[in-house]
Amino acid sequence: MVIKADVQGTLEAILGCLSEDVRVIHSGVGPVTDNDVFLAQSSGAKIYCFNNSAPRFIKNLADNSRVEIMETKIIYEIIEDIQSRVLKMLEPTIDETILGEGTIIAEFKIDKLRIAGIKVTKGEITKGDSIHLKRQNDIIKDTKVEGIHQGKLTVDKAKLGSESGMTFRPYVDFKINDVIISYNK
Fold it and tell me: Would 102 disulfide with which of 34, 120, 132, 166, CB 3.0-4.6 Å?
């Protein structure tokens, strides 16, 4: 990240609050400059601006460069934002609520369409849910539930303990024993 503050004492206070997991690529006193934006863009960093604001042309440059600038007059907001970003990097699913889980127990092919036979092991899975496809403790793909079928019926939900056929969009190359995790953010 890049940190800019209005005075040196404040800058030192902010830097002193950061954990070892945070990499500050540049810090300084004064307004955000075009060099700060270019540095943030090249390293994928976010710019934190405390108690001063970035000029309009710098904000436009940052928008065009896809660099995020956070301006605030409260140190706690910067620290809280940094902590949530670090947590998100360490645990990407930290801001998700799990709605349901299921295990792929079979595979069916109908008209060149692969259908996953799912046994719901927790909660419920609903048509349209975002899901993680997990194989051996690693999330390998994210997709959505396109359709749920129980027997010849098309249903909107698969509940705990039920077995159903599911299709996904975009397509995922699933295998038997993969786990699907339905979630929302």
Answer: 120
